[in-house]
Specification:
Blueprint lengths: L6 E10 L2 E7 L5 E3 L2 E3 L6 H13 L5 E11 L8 E9 L11 E7 L8 E2 L4 H17 L5
Parallel strand pairs: 1-6, 3-8
Antiparallel strand pairs: 1-2, 1-4, 2-3, 2-7, 5-6
Length: 144
């Protein structure tokens, strides 16, 4: 029996004051992404996610709320397909400090998504689901 091989990438949907954090890729100027990254060999998924968020944003005091979406992405730019998992993150404080992988960041509203080119094919869908999850949690009076 053979199995398909793929890489796993975890993305953080960080919403603060009604805006979502997006980061511009250094190697792909003009293309935006969510902070996050791949799981290294022999690394636990949550530990990898926390490491990537810290490395790419400089934030360390955050809470992973829940997974909101996933996607399998086939591209000619990578030798293996990528499985992306997007999770809503709570982080109400802290300044953003980008890694060398990113050249800029923005806080954008859901209505601004169409103004940006995203590296991930379905990033807009993932972010919309993040906003929806955020609203649902807020409406159910859970703290975010």
């Amino acid at each position: 029996m053979s199995y398909e091989r793929f890489m796993v990438s975890q993305k953080g949907i960080l919403i603060r004051n009604g805006k979502c954090l997006i980061v511009e890729l250094t190697n792909w100027p003009g293309y935006w992404d969510l902070p996050g990254g791949r799981v290294d060999e022999d690394e636990e998924c949550e530990a990898a996610f926390r490491r990537e968020i810290r490395e790419e944003t400089g934030l360390s005091d955050f809470e992973i709320i829940q997974t909101v979406d996933h996607d399998l992405w086939y591209t000619k730019h990578r030798h293996l397909p990528m499985c992306g998992i997007a999770s809503l993150i709570r982080c109400d404080k802290g300044d953003i400090r980008l890694s060398v992988e990113h050249r800029d960041y923005k806080w954008i509203g859901e209505d601004e998504l169409h103004n940006y080119l995203f590296f991930w094919k379905n990033a807009r869908r993932m972010i919309r689901k993040g906003f929806e999850c955020f609203r649902n949690i807020k409406e159910s009076k859970q703290s975010l």
